[in-house]
């Protein structure tokens, strides 16, 4: 269990670093898929099977295919010759490093975070997360589900309008 | 059976991923890669949600599924956001013939 966590966490983090460091956008997109697969494995380790599956289907499947499609449609070449800017790299290291320091400081003093991951037992282990989430979606969260459906419709129409040749 | 894993392990991974995405947004100049780094930051936040949902067990020992429902909504909104964002990038590329954010500075002056 524990070594699997470290393998998949490393996969997610190495994939993330690959997104930032690869010069070719196609390589970045593939590193992103690796990162998402690692994240999905972490979700499944947290007994969130539905969300892990959705992560693979929607993120690693649909969204990254869309990214790759647009990269190929625009025929983007990799950034050649030019190194990353000195100022932007230094700024990024300072900001991201500061952010990491703050996270480390918060986690160090976060006592509730010391709770150990124990396997689900009894009734909790018998109800699947799919049925529990489905029940919530179609009872408590029925109105938000309809709003999300509306949002998807608006997004579809918006994409069609934006993709037209001439914008008026 | 104790797995030796705690909530902090997952939160640390999430924090590292978020910092990587943040650094990517600041370093990279290609607008598509910047967009991918934004998605990475969003996923890092998602991991936090799943971790808190799993460790905040209710009376019967089941995870707090409300957090996972929120994640379901976030994934849906992210899909819509990516579709619209990429359509905007395509429109921008048609107008400017570039994806380099340093070249797209017409609102600067």
- CATH third-tier fold name of the largest domain in chain A: Four Helix Bundle (Hemerythrin (Met), subunit A)
Q: Specify the oligomeric state.
A: heterodimer
Portion of residues in beta strands of chain A equals under 5%
| Cα-to-Cα separation, first versus last residue of chain B | 63 Å
Kindly provide the radius of gyration of chain A, computed on alpha-carbon positions and rounded to a whole number of angstroms: 21 Å
Instruction: Give the CATH class of chain B.
Output: Mainly Alpha
CATH topology of chain B: Helix Hairpins
Overall average residue pLDDT of chain A: 88
**Major sheet summary line of chain A:** none
Percent in helix of chain A: over 70%
Largest interface: A-B, 86 and 73 residues
Share in helix of chain B: over 70%
Summarize the entry for a quick read:
The complex is a heterodimer of chains A (168) and B (109). Chain A is an all-alpha fold.
Which key features would you list for this structure?
heterodimer; A: 168 residues; mainly alpha; Four Helix Bundle (Hemerythrin (Met), subunit A); 2 domains; 7 helices; 75% helix; globular; B: 109 residues; Helix Hairpins; 3 helices
Describe the protein:
The complex is a heterodimer of chains A (168) and B (109). Chain A is built from seven helices and no strands. Chain A is mainly α. Chain A has two domains: 82 residues, NADH-ubiquinone/plastoquinone oxidoreductase chain 6, subunit NuoJ (Four Helix Bundle (Hemerythrin (Met), subunit A), Up-down Bundle), CATH 1.20.120; 41 residues. Helix content of chain B is 72%, strand content 0%. The mean pLDDT of chain B is 88. By secondary structure, chain B is mainly α. Classes of the chains: A mainly alpha (168), B mainly alpha (109). The interface between A and B is large, with 86 and 73 residues.
């Amino acid at each position: 269990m524990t070594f699997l966590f470290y393998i998949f966490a490393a996969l997610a983090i190495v994939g993330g670093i690959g997104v930032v460091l690869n010069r070719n956008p196609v390589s970045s997109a593939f590193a992103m898929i690796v990162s998402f697969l690692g994240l999905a494995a972490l979700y499944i380790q947290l007994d969130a099977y539905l969300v892990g599956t959705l992560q693979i289907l929607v993120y690693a499947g649909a969204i990254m295919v869309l990214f790759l499609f647009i990269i190929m449609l625009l025929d983007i070449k990799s950034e050649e010759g030019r190194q990353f800017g000195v100022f932007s790299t230094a700024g990024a290291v300072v900001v991201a490093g500061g952010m990491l320091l703050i996270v480390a400081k918060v986690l160090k003093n976060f006592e509730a975070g010391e709770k150990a991951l124990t396997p689900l037992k009894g009734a909790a282990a018998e109800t699947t997360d799919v049925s529990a989430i489905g029940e919530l979606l179609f009872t408590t969260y029925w109105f938000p589900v309809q709003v999300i459906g509306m949002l998807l419709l608006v997004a579809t129409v918006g994409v069609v309008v934006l993709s037209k040749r001439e914008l008026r | 059976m104790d797995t030796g894993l705690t909530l902090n392990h997952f939160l640390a991974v999430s924090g590292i991923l978020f910092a990587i995405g943040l650094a990517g947004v600041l370093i990279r100049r290609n607008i598509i890669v910047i967009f991918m780094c934004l998605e990475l930051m969003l996923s890092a936040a998602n991991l936090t949600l799943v971790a808190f949902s799993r460790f905040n067990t209710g009376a019967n020992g089941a995870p707090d599924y409300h957090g996972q429902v929120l994640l379901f909504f976030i994934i849906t909104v992210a899909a819509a956001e990516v579709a619209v964002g990429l359509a905007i990038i395509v429109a921008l590329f048609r107008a400017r013939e570039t994806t380099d954010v340093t070249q797209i500075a017409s609102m600067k002056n």
